[in-house]
Amino acid sequence: MNHDSRSKKSGYYVAAVHRLETAGSANIRMAMVAPLDEFYAQIIDERRTLFALALAFVGATLPFAFWLGSLMAQPLRKLADETDAIQRFEITERPRVHSVIAEIEELGRSVFTMRSVVRSFASFIPRQIVRQLIETGSSLSLGGSRREVTVLFTDVADFTAKTERADPSQVMIHTSRYFAVLSDEIMRHQGTVDKYIGDAVMAFWNAPADDPDHTVNACRAILACLAANEALNQEFRREGWPPYDTRFGLHVGDAVVGNIGSSDRMNYTALGATINLASRLEGLNKNYGTRVLVSAAVRASVGDRFLFRSVDSITPKGFADAIEVSELSGEMAHADEADVAMCRRWDEVFAAIAQDGAAETTRVRLSAFLHDYPKDSVALFHAQRFRSAARNAGAAA
Q1: Distance from the CA of 275 to the CA of which of 32, 178, 250, 367 falls in 20 to 30 A?
Q2: Please, which residues have CB within 8 angstroms of residue 394's CB and are 6 or more apart in sequence?
Q3: Phi-psi map region of 303: left, alpha, beta (phi>0 left; psi -120 to 50 alpha)
Q4: What are 132-174's pLDDT values in tens digits?
Q5: Rounded Cα–Cα distance for residues 250 and 202 (Å)
Q6: 167 — phi, psi (to 5°)?
Q7: What is the DSSP string of 298-350?
Q8: CA 84 to CA 96: how far, in whole Å?
Q9: Which domain holds residue 160?
Q10: Integer CA distances (angstroms), 174 to 7, 245, 286, 323, in order
């Protein structure tokens, strides 16, 4: 039997047998045998054609697929980096991620909005709190805990007199610049800006994040604020605006720190006698003509790392016990020898005043100090007190 060449490809045949009914022949059968490939030849040819067309289509569209994938992957990768940065609380303003694909463009708009919202949120709530909320996925809740904090209050000397006749919009602009300068230095030294009260700033250290050197950092922040304040005042003078001379009060002690208020509106702050005393210290600067007054607790906490001089022993309003108040003059590592000598000499005079302020020897020592430092406001305060006591004693006699 001869076979078609295509039959040899598969080796299979199709066979059919049919019985023929004819007159006089009852046992005739017709058989047909054909290679299987004869039946599938057209299908196989079409399959080969379709396969070739598919390969050609894939080859033609593969570069487009790579281009489309790159078009999608690049902005998605940038958006992933954006969300990671927000989770790390890196919320500085960045350009928005764009894409020609509508869904990715919408996602980029949402991430950009989220960054703006978080940045705005951090302007009203301490950044450490916002960072903690992002990292833990938790929400704000009312409540607090007791911990040691160093508390600072500031105030602008004669603010009302300097600004009452000025254009309100200019007052807002210059005061905002002033707040920005002080806040930058406070936060640069690990402080938390609690609130702005008129022209005053309240800040504290060691909350919400732990800071083992919180009192040291607070003292350094004050000195940095003084320098930045003076630089800003020079700009104000050139602009024809009155300088903002800042006074500071600093105290360290226990306080309740946390979120207070209502479920709709709350404030992260510190409460207690420690906060009240820091505020009182700031106000006492007016009496002594000083810029920075600190409590004995602050002076004891930082040791000899800073230059202080004693100012007075007082019982602040609302407190039962007297406290010793000191003036912060600088950091010992950078202190001028003349300033150190002046503070040491004054502390000797103050010790004599504290021991016996009415003694003639004390008056002589105070007069000698004023001879060398005639404009020293603290010495002038005590000299005036000495004269008032002498007059009262003479009147009583």
Answers
A1: 178
A2: none
A3: left
A4: 656 655 566 778 889 999 999 999 999 999 999 999 999 999 9
A5: 10
A6: -65, 125
A7: HHHHHGGGEEEEEEEEE--TT-SS-EEEEEEEEEGGG--HHHHHHHHHHHHHH
A8: 15
A9: 147-335
A10: 98, 13, 23, 36
Asked whether residue 189 falls in the same domain as residue 164, the answer is yes
Q: Which amino acid is at 165?
A: R
Tens of pLDDT, residue by residue over 42-54, are: 666 767 777 777 7
Q: For 246-312, give the DSSP string.
A: EEEEEEEEEEEEEEEE-SSSEEEEEESHHHHHHHHHHHHHHHHT-SEEEEHHHHHHHGGGEEEEEEE
Contact by Cβ (8 Å): 281, 249: yes
| E strand or H helix at 147 | strand 143-156
For 222: left if phi > 0, alpha if psi spans -120 to 50, otherwise beta; the answer is: alpha
Residue with tokens 């100012």: 311
Q: What backbone phi and psi angles, to 5 degrees, belong to 335?
A: -75, 145
* Co-location of 154 and 240 in the same domain: yes
CATH of the domain at 156: 3.30.70.1230
If asked whether residues 261 and 342 sit together in one domain, one would say no
Provide the whole-model pTM.
0.73
Distance CA 224, CA 178 (A): 14
The neighbour count for residue 271, using CB atoms within 10 Å, is 14
